[in-house]
Amino acid sequence: MIQVEDIHKSFGDTHVLKGITTSFEQGKTNLVIGQSGSGKTVFLKCLLGLFEPEKGQICYNGQFYSELSISERRDLRQEMGMVFQGSALFDSMTVEGNVMFPLEMFTKQSRAEMQDRVDFVLERVNLVDAHKKFPSEISGGMKKRVAIARAIVMNPKYLFCDEPNSGLDPKTAILIDNLIQEITREYNITTVINTHDMNSVMEIGEKIIFLKNGFKEWEGTNKEIFKTDNEAVTNFVYSSELFKKVRQMYIEERN
Ligand SMILES: Nc1ncnc2c1ncn2[C@@H]1O[C@H](COP(=O)(O)OP(=O)(O)OP(=O)(O)O)[C@@H](O)[C@H]1O
């Protein structure tokens, strides 16, 4: 569980996060949505400990980040998995080399133990024949699976994903969303995903926070978001013609 209490983050005179309070539960896919520039990436970087808010607190399973020593922060960092936008794989390493990398960096496991763990997570993300391939030899959807395998190889308590669907076709995007949700539930991870993708909102938005100009404008579930009267949220959700039609159908059904 992550609790966020009134966090503020500025860069010089630019006040980007203006007092965000929320919480993200374990075993749930939590989504952060909002217009470009609303502060989603800065928020995710605060959760990752890459930016320290100048005001407010972030608490990870009862531990306040600001109260942790440097070595405790390092330990916490190792409990976090990250799926970057565009996958961010090492081009010169094979699929299994990419997934093994965190184990080599941060653990003292034997080669056989690491290989077992890599085989297990690659199988978990349904990649069985790609171990020896290089990123240039696999599809975008497969690259995301490798990025997810690498993010979970250390058995994280927290999983952060920045636009995990960017660059994927809608069908593959849904498979990746479902995989993230399954893994989140199976391993009881606290998962936070930055997204623009309304399909993700519908499919896996167990909790959604909507940011606007650095404020939390709204929060709720994927069921609630389609019923809200909050104008900023409806403008965002129904910016596409398809979703306007869905809303119209919903209103007609209700009446
Ligand atoms: N390191 C930084 N230094 C100065 N300003 C920054 C920095 N990082 C972000 N900002 C500013 O913070 C604001 C929010 O940026 P952020 O990247 O969090 O938006 P976003 O909601 O993730 O947008 P997008 O959906 O386009 O990625 C922007 O005005 C941006 O210019």
Automatic annotation (TrEMBL):
Residue ranges annotated for the ABC transporter domain, each copy included: 2-238
MF annotations from Gene Ontology: ATP binding; ATP hydrolysis activity
Transmembrane portions of the chain: none
Keyword presence, Zinc-finger: no
Keywords, alphabetical: ATP-binding, Nucleotide-binding, Transport
SMART domains recorded: AAA
Gene3D superfamilies assigned to the protein according to its UniProt record, in alphabetical order: P-loop containing nucleotide triphosphate hydrolases
UniProt cross-references to InterPro entries, sorted A to Z: AAA+_ATPase, ABC_transporter-like_ATP-bd, ABC_transporter-like_CS, P-loop_NTPase
PANTHER family according to UniProt: INTERMEMBRANE PHOSPHOLIPID TRANSPORT SYSTEM ATP-BINDING PROTEIN MLAF (PTHR43023:SF6), PROTEIN TRIGALACTOSYLDIACYLGLYCEROL 3, CHLOROPLASTIC (PTHR43023)
Protein name per Swiss-Prot or TrEMBL: Phospholipid/cholesterol/gamma-HCH transport system ATP-binding protein
The species this protein was found in: Flagellimonas meridianipacifica
